[in-house]
Amino acid sequence: MADPIIRVEGFTAAYDGQVIIDDITFEVQPGEVFVILGGSGCGKSTLLKHLIGLYAPAQGRILIEGRDLATAEGDDRLAILKRIGVMYQMGALFGSMTLLENVRLPLEEYTDLPKDATEAIARMKLQLVALRGFEQHMPSEISGGMKKRAAIARAMALDPRILFLDEPSAGLDPITSAELDQLILKLARGLGITFVVVTHELASIYAIADRVIMLDKRVKKIVATGKPAELRDGSTNPWVRQFFNRQAESA
Amino acid sequence: MGVSDSMSAGMDVQEQGDALHFVLHGRLDAETTGALWRRAFKTLDGSRRRLRVLDATAVDYCDGAGIGLLVELRRRAGAEVEIRGLAPQFRTLLDLFPPGGAEPLAPTPEKPSLADETGRATLAILRDLRHQTAFIGELLSAAGRALWRPGEIRWSDALRVAEEAGVNALPIISLMGFLIGLILAFQSASQLKIVGAEVFVSDLVAVSVVRELGPLMTAILLAGRSGSAFAAELGTMKVNEEVDALVTMGLAPVRFLVLPRVLAGVLLAPLLTVYFDLVAVIGAAVVVASFGHSMVTFAHHVQNALSVTIFVSGTVKALAFGLIISGVGCQRGLETGTGAVAVGVSTTRSVVAGILLTILVDGVFAGVYYALGI
Q1: Exposed e or buried b for every residue in A34-70, given b needs 16+ CB within 10 A?
Q2: Residues B2-94, CATH architecture
Q3: Which of A92, A221, B15, B229 could form an S-S bond across to A88 if both were Cys, CB 3.0 to 4.6 Å?
Q4: pLDDT at residue A248, as a whole number
Q5: What ipTM was assigned to the predicted interfaces of this complex?
């Protein structure tokens, strides 16, 4: 097996002394679609924010391609950040810029490409997420699903090796959600991008996940790791089976 | 004892030995239950008998409010109360709240002691101070870097902000400046007239506006109009995770978002102040003209009263005020927590802190200018 692209070792997350995630360890392999799932409030988004370096772990460490984002500074930190892209839950597109300008921004900031080149590359990225013709639209003029696709295009601007997606299906209709799943698979299989996806949408999980980890807020730990179908049918943890079979707690 | 029609609810109270029976009828919904609720509990509180039976046989309809009444009566009177005759479709709703299952409400947190509150407030002030110091450090570092590499400044953003905060502010600045000049001229004229020195209205207005009122009033307008807009815009970006997106792209929010706004603020404040001064003097000129003095006399007095020192002292102050207001607005915006309320809080704090700091710094300027003999 290849070296893991992400390695999380003994990671603990805490806010104001309150532990949210307690001492978890896992690895993500290059090129896989890795899904972090769990019920509401289990710390999925917290884990994601630590993975992308917005917060530092209370304990343990997170290595992206062998480098620790939390302790890296200056150019070292920048080098790691250029290897990752993030799609936030609501897209987080810059409202004062067109879609093209949003996607061009990382290219303008980090490359010395001429203006026509950054524009051409940004157009290609938008085309890749099926947003051709919407280059001059403002984020406020497009739908929620389009915003998410544009955010993926922006996250891919510098051709990162890892894309982090926070709740890509949230607030989308089933068809748009399925289209987004197809896009993720296309990019993962076609471009070899590693995806780390936070979601609790079962349909998406079955469609895209190579492997999942499941967090449980009661124990604040990973309670299951594996392929979704295996966990649905073979997990010994009743809560995990309930989750994958979409059963109410009392069922 | 009670009556009801098809659109109302009623209750009969029956006393049997030491037991109370409430016989409910009609439609128990959010509109009708209120009166019944008050009456039921008043009866319960005023009676020595215990509630034993809630007869709902004649209840035609029951929504959440009606079920709430039944559940609450049962909770108050004890689990032994029999709820009789409730139609099956409403019984399903009632069964969601088994007797005795209700957990007590979490106790209201105890009011912190004075010492606690003082400690918390002190810590909050120290934390705020630390954030402000870090922010000023980051801003200075970004500004220093921008001096060497002006290409890194997002000039397009700075120009957009300058247009919104500057050009678009001209009408309100014009109105305010004109009125302030007019009012100041009338007020001073009423006093100067007593000693026959009406003609010195122009001197008084020109000096007070250029030296003090111009920079201060423009700063207050900027704080209310642009400082708050910076805080709201950056606060909304924070809430929408746009600031997080910048950070994960490796772009420093201070360089990317704050520097263009502060630059615009620092450049605009003196320009708007000069414009305010000019319009205020025109306002004063209108009053002086109405007294029958010629514009030549007015211009002559203004020219004599003002000096380059006075003009520069006002402009330097305006520059400092612009820095304070735009800096505070951006800092409060970037400190926004989560949710729409947090944006409102940041906006308010930006205006309050901006005006307060402006007046404090104005006081410092007054002392320094006095010491320098300006």
Answers
A1: bbbbbeeebbbebbbbbbbbbeebbebebbbbeebbe
A2: 2-Layer Sandwich (3.30)
A3: A92
A4: 66
A5: 0.83
